[in-house]
């Protein structure tokens, strides 16, 4: 949550954190709620653990990344033409490529 609070557009979430959140007992409450949080909870989070983590890696400050430097993708809602083309592709597959 602290990473999201620090940079909501491109939080840095390291792969080992995901594993730790799934198995460490200290995150049991978060596991029980299926890691579903509100933005209010994010805004009230204590940043000290995240700051200490990055300091331990030799950073003076928590790094900030641009969304293009992360694996976060942005999904755009398809327009009507894209939806119609998708339906047409599925129809073509059903008609001409039955399995």
Q: What are its keywords?
A:
elongated, 51% helix, mainly alpha, 99 residues
Assembly type of the chains comes to single chain
Q: Beta-strand percentage?
A: under 5%
Helix count equals 6
Rounded Rg:
20 Å
Residue stretches low in confidence (pLDDT < 50, at least 5 long) are none
The profile of the biggest β sheet is: none
Would you report the number of β strands?
0
Give the helix level as a range of percent: 40-55%
State mean pLDDT (0 to 100 scale). 86
Structural class designation: mainly alpha
SSE ordering: HHHHHH
Helix-strand layout with pairing:
Layout: H1 2-6, H2 15-23, H3 28-32, H4 39-43, H5 48-56, H6 80-96
Question: Would you kindly provide a written description of the structure presented here, covering whatever features stand out?
Answer:
This protein is mostly helical and 99 residues long. The chain is built from six helices and no strands. The protein has helices at residues 2-6, 15-23, 28-32, 39-43, 48-56, 80-96. The longest helix is centred in the last third of the chain and has 17 residues, at 80-96. The radius of gyration is 20 Å and the shape is elongated. It starts with a helix and ends with a helix.
Brief sketch in words of this structure:
About 50% of the residues lie in helices and about 0% in strands. It has helices at about 1-5, 15-25, 30, 40-45, 50-55, 80-95. The mean pLDDT is about 85.
